[in-house]
Write a structure and sequence with these properties.
Keywords: Aminoacyl-tRNA synthetase, ATP-binding, Ligase, Nucleotide-binding, Protein biosynthesis. One of its GO terms (cellular component) is mitochondrion. InterPro entries: Aa-tRNA-synt_II, aa-tRNA-synth_II, aa-tRNA-synth_II/BPL/LPL, Asn-tRNA-ligase, Asp/Asn-tRNA-synth_IIb, NA-bd_OB-fold, NA-bd_OB_tRNA. There is one protein chain. Helix content is 31%, strand content 23%. The chain is an alpha+beta fold and 487 residues long. The chain folds into 2 domains: 35-133, OB fold (Dihydrolipoamide Acetyltransferase, E2P), CATH 2.40.50.140; 153-206 and 217-474, Bira Bifunctional Protein, Domain 2 (BirA Bifunctional Protein, domain 2, 2-Layer Sandwich). The strands form 3 sheets. An 8-stranded mixed β-sheet has the order 7-10-11-16-15-14-13-12, with helices on both faces. Strands 2-3-4-6-5 form a 5-stranded mixed barrel. The structure holds 4-amino-1,4-dioxobutan-2-aminium adenosine-5'-monophosphate. 4-amino-1,4-dioxobutan-2-aminium adenosine-5'-monophosphate is lined by residues 195-196, 230, 232, 253, 255, 262-263, 266, 268, 270, 411-415, 454-456, 458, 460-461.
């Protein structure tokens, strides 16, 4: 028996719970067979072994003597074909139901799969009424349609593929940082700072009033506290002892934007690098992070990626290949404004030096760069938060900040060198009326300050970009956005 098939996955506790509704003799029989994931059964080259699989029925086809099932357990895109004699066919077997099946793994006569399970026992663990079930047996459901069922959409091929890719990408990102000697820091979810200074904060207070909060003592934490918009400032504190740190966790923005690339809760990958002296040091890490993670996905999730590249965003593989093959472009913000002003495109927002790039501008710049990701550097100083390093250039006063723009999405990463010079930082904070709030941040510059910088990459936007997904709500298990918090 193949090693993969030999791997016993189930605990007896889980086993007895799942089989609670079948008769005792069947349960004993089933228990003695080895529980195997569909993914491992499909890879098995040794046939003839008795195995047991647990999963959900993706299709049922009855013939005169046999019934054919496809069973999925989330471990692979491809289901396992199960063949059973018609008299084994339980009455309540249907599309969508949960099953526990024991049988012999045999070579399949069909060219569509190597192996199939010839069932000796089929237990329906959980029934499913296919008439009421929102997904239909042969239905091609769009991402938009399945989005209406956030509690059920993991049962579709498309969303289960997305979730496997998301899980693998998470692993790949952690591996990237580990392989490059970054230390992972768990930055707090609840914080008293507004790192980006944009005021897009969710405030955190207890729901009830057992704490007797009143006008004199209005806050649970004594100060106003918020869900984090970025772990950057905490990472900067850690950069005082570690040359390279990162964090990867949920981030919250109370943005009133209902766009296809904004969420109120999203995951951000943030890195901070001490002794970084130029934006080049940051751009090099961003490009390698993007390419190493994508390369990992293409080799570990080939089938799932193909589902997106072939069927959900046809032709998108070419775009991914282009991004992987070519060096990312670099242009300055000032050059970008020139490019926009020289174009014949009719923009809704007129491009102007000193104003933020709008989505339509970002899209145009990426196209102008041959649909290869592009770093836009050195933004107007006044557009960037207090922490961005002053380039001290005249007359076009800029900050050492960089955004990475990518096809289909626009801004994927935002980063900067941080102002490490105490007096310049003190002045900027005082101008913004923040010097008292950030005394601890100023202290970081008093004691062993070094040039440093970092960036944040939106994880859901990354998935949009490598899979060609139009709407960010289709990249996260449970999307939160303004006016919607379902489940
Ligand atoms: O450009 P941002 O705001 O940068 C920061 O927060 C820095 N403090 C990060 C750092 O330097 N450590 O956000 C970084 C990225 C954006 O480029 C975008 O990809 C993503 O986070 N992002 C969002 N993704 C989904 N929904 C939103 N509302 C997002 N806002 C930002």
């Amino acid at each position: 028996m193949a090693a993969a098939v030999k791997a016993l996955l189930g605990s007896s506790l889980a086993t007895s719970r799942l089989c609670g509704c079948v008769n005792f003799s069947k349960r004993l029989y089933s228990r003695s067979a080895k529980r195997v994931r569909v993914h491992d059964a499909l890879k098995s080259t040794e046939t003839g072994s008795t195995i047991r699989i647990q999963g959900w029925v993706r299709s049922v086809r009855s013939q005169k003597h046999n019934v054919f099932l496809h069973v999925s357990d989330g471990s692979s895109l491809q289901p396992l074909q199960v063949v059973a004699s018609s008299d084994l066919n339980p009455r309540n077997l249907s599309f969508g139901c949960a099953v526990d099946i024991t049988g012999n793994l045999e070579k399949s006569p069909s060219k569509k799969q190597n192996v199939e399970l010839q069932a000796s026992h089929i237990d329906v663990v959980g029934e499913c009424n296919p008439v009421d079930f929102p997904f239909k047996i042969k239905g091609h459901h769009s991402l938009e349609y399945i989005r209406q069922f956030p509690h059920l959409r993991c049962r579709t091929n498309a969303f289960s593929a997305l979730l496997r890719i998301r899980s693998q990408a998470t692993d790949a990102i952690h591996s990237f940082f580990r392989d490059n000697n970054f230390v992972q820091i768990h930055t707090p979810v609840i914080t008293s700072n507004d790192c980006e200074g944009a005021g897009e904060l969710f405030q955190v207070e207890p729901a009830g009033n057992e704490w007797n909060l009143d006008e004199e003592n209005p806050h649970f934490f004594s100060v106003p506290a918020y869900l984090t918009v970025s772990g950057q400032l905490h990472l900067e504190a850690m950069s005082g002892a570690f040359p390279a740190v990162y964090t990867f966790g949920p981030t919250f923005r109370a943005e009133n934007s209902q766009t296809r690339r904004h969420l109120a809760e999203f995951y951000m990958v943030e890195a901070e690098i001490a002794f970084a002296e130029s934006l080049k040091d940051l751009m090099e890490v961003m490009e390698r992070l993007f390419k190493t993670t994508t390369d990992n996905l293409l080799s570990h999730c080939a089938e799932d990626m193909e589902l997106f590249h072939k069927y959900l965003s046809p032709g998108y593989m070419e775009q991914v290949n282009l991004m992987m093959k070519r060096n990312f472009n670099v242009i300055s913000y000032t050059e970008a404004i020139d490019v926009l002003n020289r174009s014949s495109e009719q923009f809704t927002f007129k491009p102007e030096w000193g104003c933020d790039l709008q989505t339509e501008h970002e899209k145009y710049i990426v196209q102008h760069c041959g649909n290869v990701p592009v770093f836009v550097t050195d933004y107007p100083y006044e557009l960037k938060p207090f922490y961005a390093r002053d380039n001290q250039d005249q007359p076009q006063h800029t900050a050492a900040a960089v955004d990475l723009l990518v096809p289909g999405v626009g801004e994927l990463c935002g980063g900067s060198l941080r102002e490490e010079r105490l007096e310049l930082l003190r002045t900027r904070l005082a101008q913004a009326g923040l010097d008292n709030t950030y005394t601890w941040y100023l202290q970081l510059r008093e004691f062993g300050s070094v040039p440093h910088g970092g960036f944040g990459m939106g994880f859901e936007r990354y998935l949009q970009c490598v899979l060609g997904i139009d709407n960010i709500k289709d990249t996260i298990p449970f999307a939160r956005f303004s006016r919607s918090c379902v489940l």
